[in-house]
Amino acid sequence: MLHVSNLRKSYSEGSSERDVLTNLSFTINRGELVVLLGRSGSGKSTLLNMISGMDVPSSGSIAFQGTELTELSDTERTLFRRQHLGIIFQSFNLIPTLTVEENVLLPLELSETADIEQRKVAMDVLHEVGLGDRGSSFPDRLSGGEQQRVAIARALAHNPSLILADEPTGNLDLRTAETVMDILQRLVHDDRRTMLIATHDREIIRLADRVLELQAGRMEDVTPEMNGLGSNGERERTGD
Amino acid sequence: MRRLILLLLLLSAAGCTTPPDAEESDDTLNLAEAMGGDTLGYARAVGPQPFDFPTDFGAHPTFKTEWWYFTGNLWSGDKRRFGYEFTVFRSALRPPDSLARHSEWSTNQLYMGHFSLADPETGTFHAHERFSRGAAGLAGAASPPFRVWLEDWSMETVAADPSSLFPLQLQVEADGVGIDLMLDATNPIVLQGERGWDPKGDGNGNASYYFSFTRIETKGTITLPSGRFNVEGSSWKDHEWSTSALGKDEVGWDWFALQLDDGREIMFYQLRREDGSQSPFTGGTLVEADGSYRHITRNEVKLQVDGTWESPVSGAIYPSGWTLSLPGEDLELHVTPVMQNQELNVSVRYFEGAVDIEGTSNGQPIAGVGYVELTGYDGSTL
Amino acid sequence: MALSILGVALGVAVVVGIDLANSSARTAFRLSTETVTGRATHAIVPGGGLLQDDTYRQLRTETGFRNAAPVLEGYTRAGAETGPVLQILGIDPLAEEPFRSYTGGPQGNLDLGAFMGPSLTGLISRSTADRLGIQSGASLALYREGKTSTIVILDVMDPEPGFSEASLTNLLIVDIATAQSLLNAPGQLSRIDLILNEDGRAAQLEKLDRVLPSGARIEPASTRSSTLDQMTQAFSLNLTAMSLLAMVVGMFLIYNTMTFSVVQRRSLIGRLRGIGVTAREISGLILAEAAVVGLIGSTIGMVSGIFLGHVLVDLVTRSINDLYFTVRIQELNLSWLGLGKGLLVGMGATVLAAFAPAREATRAIPSTVLRRSEDETRIETHGGLLRGIGFFLALLGALILWMSGSSIALSYVGILFIILAAALWIPSFANIGSRALRPLMGRFFGIVGRMAASGIHHSLSRSAVAIAALTVAVAATSGVGIMVDSFRTTVDTWLRYSLEADIYVSPPGMVFRRNDATIDTQVERQIRAMDGVAETYSVRTARVQIEGRMTDMVVTEPRNRELEPGRYKKRSSYDHREAMVSRDVIMVSEPYAFRYNTDVGDSLQVMTASGPRTFEVGAIYYDYASDLGVVQMARSRYETHFTDRYVSGLAIYAADGVDIDELIDNLKSATADGQGLLIRSNRSLRQASLDVFDQTFTVTAVLRLLTILVAFIGVLTALMALQLERARELSVLRANGMTPGQVQRMVTTQTGLMGLLSGLLSVPLGLLLAWLLIFVINQRSFGWTLQFDVDLMVLFQAVLLAVIAALLAGWIPGRSMSRMNATEALRFE
User: Fold this and answer.
1) pLDDT digits (tens, 9 = 90+) for B308-333
2) Closest CA to C492 of C654, C777, C775, C682
3) Which of B74, B201, C129, C542 could bond to B233 as cystine, CB 3.0-4.6 Å?
4) Cβ within 8 Å of C, B 68-87
5) Spatial separation of the C-alpha atoms in residues C724 and C257, rounded to whole Å
6) Looking at residue C311, what is its pLDDT?
């Protein structure tokens, strides 16, 4: 459903140009859980930004369910994103001035077309993550893990086609990370949603259908080595 | 005699200016220019006119210049000698006009007063000057009854009969120095020149109307910071008015008013020219003891300067001491100022000094007192 | 940074501008009176009216007192009927030498004959000549009380050594004779200047006493300028207070901008701390930066203040001209002290306002959302503390107002405390208000609305300051506005019932409110006899010595009318109007009663032509024409005790059925040849009075505008800081599908809500300020009773103003936020 071809992103620093992403091409199919590997500075966030339509490539194409994102205006991409994408960040996911419930409903509210049915679905998702009773609380009353769970609920609430996540368990302790991972697995994997996750979390890598590694702006499919769990055996965590 | 008042020039529009911060010695102005000046529109003394007394004791505003002049020699009880001068000058700033006056203050007449007191015992010479406009009751001259005043300086008749000039009271005070004198004329009026018309230079109207009272009995008080003195003596009064009096080349005069102890008086003036020579209009009057008088010409009089005195203030060198003789009368008089410094350094600079006289008349010794006036010696020119 | 500088510059400009205008006015009075006073130490001044010049003659001829100079002063317009006002100074050049050296004398170059003679001549200064476009020898037309004269300028004079050319501006030196003619004062003088020596003074005074006429007295020369100062003290103090208000609002602004700059550089500061820069060094850096901003801003402010001063000095002196007395010198006087004050205030305010942001900077570590909300929680708990302090300040302020008696300065201090107290309560109100309005906002604006409302109490430390600044500024504006409107309404009402006649006639005067010009007797007779005139009542405005003070007195011919209760504040038990005609009874105006603590039944000593007489106060009446205080006497009584028979104005009642405008035209054409007179209908006189009123308050209008401007900039910077801090949040929103348009709408909604809260909060504060201005400041400055008239429109406009100002201020941040690349904030991590 997602085709990326010959993607290039460069930034000008003074008089020279620096390529962050060079000639990337890959595809993500429906129902896949793809993990994106890469050190900080490898261009992970940049790639995610472009796939989500928040940024545009210097050249290349990003086709999502037949729509060429590079041809859309900022507002069009925003609307597209609002409808088809769900995004989870490592932190600062929630809007502090909105209640948990309002946060979950955010994409729907922004569309201003949410109907009762859609709202019910969203609230159900909140229940699923175990925070159905915290709907009227403000984010600053929730723990880090709880916030992340709400973020997941929000990412799913409007039933998007693709979910992007950038280090969703990065800021969490072991136990909370496990909880979040469980939810992810259940809600996403078992329901056959499509996900692209940038992470180092071994457990998530284990669940992945494919593992792609970004190195110096180039992408490599490293599924076999990763899935097979390297020689270390422990979950590697390379925090930033 | 005439007196020349340069204030006219200071104030009239003759184009003469004195820089405000000029040294004192430059303040005085050239006599000739002062007597000349702008004379258009004024009445002129073109010939003898009958006088109308007591009215003519007062002011003649259609003429440019006028003064009432008193000098006198006085002695206190312990023979202390004093000399005084009190003169009020009137000067017209503009020719007479018929413009409406909306205020009592507007006037064309300016009054100036001079008062000097010589105190030879202490060697002090006091001199004071005042100015006032001739309006709003601040200064003026009227007759009858006779009254000439400048602020609180006054000369006025105290006679029961208002048309009488004498007895007359002089009251002057300045900075603690003052006189309060009663004057009563001994001799009748003396009309100078030709029946009171006294030409001074060539040209039509270069003359003045001039009369005098040559011997006036005087009694009263002199006030000094050191005390008050009762005094007695004799005074001299001149009243003169004119429009332009000096000729073009005359720079000053020496004027003598002498009272001899034989009852005679002599008035004599020598007009000096620019080149140092004596003007032909020099002359005078001899008054006999009985009050009769005649004009004396310059040929009848010999004047010789016996000494000089340099003023430490102005630097002018004045003659000091004369021998004045009338050979025809067999009269030889030595005239000596009672003190050397009797120079008035005010807006006009001149020497007005009390003098002692001693000499011979017909071979007999004779003495007297008097006053001498010297002008135009400071050499100031424009 | 530029905004900070702009803010400081604006605040300083206003303070400096007003200060320069005030001090220029005061310097002008002092210079003009000192120049005219010269070296005189004392003066003989009349009891009432003018001095007879015979006194001078007596002084000179009887006492021999030397150092005396006669003076006759007045005013006239030159060149044209509306030309510049010149002060006529009539002197005797022969007496001037010890007193003034610019007037010429026997030792000078003055043509005394032309000067003292019957033709009208005079001297003016070089600058005056240039201004009038004339030279020595030219003729100058003079207009006074409707009459024309021509004067010939003899010479151009130079100032006294040590005095500037400006000291002789608009001075016309003439002879006493000329002055008596021009001022129609034959035989009279304004005063006789004296120089009395320290030693021998007793003897000198004894001499002078001999000729002093009854009622006249000898007063020191300094009395004259101190009187002028006193007259305008209240006026200038009020102006200064307003300027300081602008500075206070400016301080809010500086606080905001300093905060903003700290926020902007949070990460930089964090890194600096990381490499070992101490907290103290950081705060020192911020303060130093503030000092630099303060310096630059103050410098710009001083320069702009000079320009503003030029504008204001014109307005201020024009007001003083209309209300109090003629101001001869009208120049902006650059005082280093005034500029220095501006610099000090500007820098001081900047550094003071930067303290809190500097402290905050030391804690500026890139923080998480949680950390930030910790700050905010602190603000919320501190809210209690703030409220407590605020309450205390309010009490203190009220106490000061209660205790300050008649001190206007202290009253303003009290008001300042109250404003500060209100400002400290605003965070709490903003908190509650935004929470309460959240659902409503959600209903109207959806999620954007809810975020807007929450955003306010979520970042209370930022938003509250902006709201407070705007609230105070708008409250001040509406408070002053209500006060001015109330005042105007009171004056209008008063004019309506005190101007009863159909037509009013008066000669043009110099000072609108205190016109003592006179009408020609002949013209008066003509007017009274005109066809169509049913009744004519005269008014005479004179200055009379009452209780040892020169006082304005109005002499009226009372009409047969019912006693109207509305006119009088307090009355005696008897019919005072009848008493005023039959006995020595007078009325005093409300400001008079206030200034001099006078009540009905009191006795006042009035210096009449025959000496001092005691009059009883029969009533206190309302009078808004003059804050200096006026006494009113019946004409018949006046003529018994004074020799003045002149008339300053006529009130005409038209006969039945006569057309007023037609009668006015007839009157105008009948009197056209003689004295130029102002003949106005009741309506147009009322309008003219209100015009003067409005003009007086132009100054305040300018200040109000500037205060709003300062607040606007403050709000703008606060909003920019606010938005900057929400950059991360913005990225999340954009990620979740918020379009740029929606971003802008969100910002706008939030600022609009802030504006609405400010507006609503400004209403009670504004009303309170208005009340304090009317019943405390006005009362204590002038003693007037004003109707508290609140036009709801004003309040509505205040709210609207706040909302619009906030919306405008939010536009730029909104746009920049919407344009921002959504991913920028994400890169921070």
Assistant:
1) 999 998 888 899 999 999 998 899 99
2) C682
3) B74
4) none
5) 13
6) 82
Residue with tokens 């020596």: C197
Chains in contact with A, counting 3 or more C-beta pairs less than 8 Å apart as contact: C
Total domain count, chain A: 1
**How many CB contacts within 8 angstroms connect chain A with chain C?**
93
pLDDT band at C254 (very low <50, low <70, confident <90, very high): confident
Q: Which residue of A55, A83, A90 is in closest CB contact with C823?
A: A55
Q: Which amino acid is at A50?
A: M
pLDDT at residue number C710: 76
Helix (H) / strand (E) containing C120? none
C513 confidence band (pLDDT: 50, 70, 90):
low
Cα–Cα distance for residue pair B97/C119, rounded to 1 Å: 11
CB distance A78–C740 less than 8 Å?
yes
Residue ranges covered by each domain of chain C:
1-37+239-366, 39-220, 429-497+688-829, 508-676
Query: Would you put residue A46 in left (φ > 0), alpha (ψ -120 to 50) or beta?
Result: alpha
For the residues C24-28, what does the mean pLDDT come to?
78
The chains in contact with chain B, meaning 3 or more Cβ pairs closer than 8 Å, are: C
Residues of A in contact with C821 (CB under 8 A): 55
Task: Out of A74, A91, A97, name the one closest to residue C740 (CB).
Answer: A74
CB contact under 8 A, A97 and C370: no
For residue A240, tell me if it sits in a domain. no
Owning domain of residue A221:
2-227
Q: Is residue A170 part of a domain?
A: yes
pLDDT tens track for A186-223: 776 677 778 888 887 777 788 788 888 888 777 888 77
Residues in chain B within 8 Å Cβ distance of C174: none
Residue B110, min C-alpha distance to chain C (Å): 9
Contact across the interface for C739 and A75, Cβ inside 8 Å: yes
Among candidates B192, B345, B189, which has minimal Cα distance to B255?
Answer: B192
Residue A15's CATH number: 3.40.50.300
Chains that touch C (3 or more CB pairs under 8 A): A, B
Three-state DSSP at A210 gives: strand
Q: What angle, rounded to 10 degrees, do the helices at C740-772 and C698-725 form?
A: 140
* Contact indicator for C713, C7 with CB cutoff of 8 Å: yes
**CA separation for the pair C191, C208 (Å, rounded):** 14
Residue C652 has pLDDT above 50, yes or no: yes
**For chain B, domain boundaries:** 7-375
Instruction: Mark whether A and B touch (3+ CB pairs within 8 Å).
Output: no
Nearest-Cα residue of chain B relative to residue C104:
B20
Q: B7-375 in CATH: which number?
A: 2.40.370.10
What's the pTM? 0.73
What mean pLDDT is predicted for residues B289-316? 90
Q: Which amino acid is at A39?
A: R
Each residue's pLDDT tens digit, B180-218: 999 998 888 888 888 888 887 777 778 889 999 999 999
C63 contacts in B (CB within 8 Å)? 152
Residue A135 forms part of a structural domain: yes
Contact B328, B343 (CB under 8 A): no
Q: C116 and B137 in contact by Cβ < 8 A?
A: no
- Asked if B103 lies within 8 A of C107 by C-beta distance, the reply is no
Tell me if ipTM is over 0.90. no
User: What's the mean pLDDT in A154-161?
Assistant: 84
pLDDT of residue B27: 39
B151-170 residues touching C, CB cutoff 8 A: 151-152, 154
CA B138 to chain centre: 22
Could you tell me if A89 lies within 8 Å of chain C, comparing CB atoms? yes
Lowest mean pLDDT among B115-129, B161-175, B202-216, C156-170: C156-170
Q: Per the domain annotation, does A233 fall within a domain?
A: no
Q: Is C359's pLDDT higher than 80?
A: no
CA distance A211 to chain C (A): 24
Nearest chain C residue to B95, by CA: C113
Cα atoms found within 13 Å of the Cα of residue C371, Cβ hemisphere only: 7
Whether the pLDDT of residue C373 is over 60: the answer is: no
